[in-house]
Amino acid sequence: MVRASLVERYIELEQWVQNLSPARNAFLHGLMWAVMWTTLTAVFGSQSILGAVGIGVAGGVFYGWLCYSWGIPS
């Protein structure tokens, strides 16, 4: 029963992502990139937390802009 519920939730999430506008989809991609890079830089890098957040946010903004301008998420 739990597995079926998780599958249903995943399908709902997938449909939600498919219905996003290109700008919102690019923002979501940039946000995921920022979280990933902030985590990796904070854990494995020699940066302070603020430095890791700065690198993550800068990378996320750049990646989101690339996705939007190249039309990758759509």
Automatic annotation (TrEMBL):
**Which UniProt keywords are given for this protein, alphabetically ordered?**
Membrane, Transmembrane, Transmembrane helix
Q: Name the residues that span the membrane.
A: 26-44, 49-71
Q: What is this protein called?
A: Uncharacterized protein
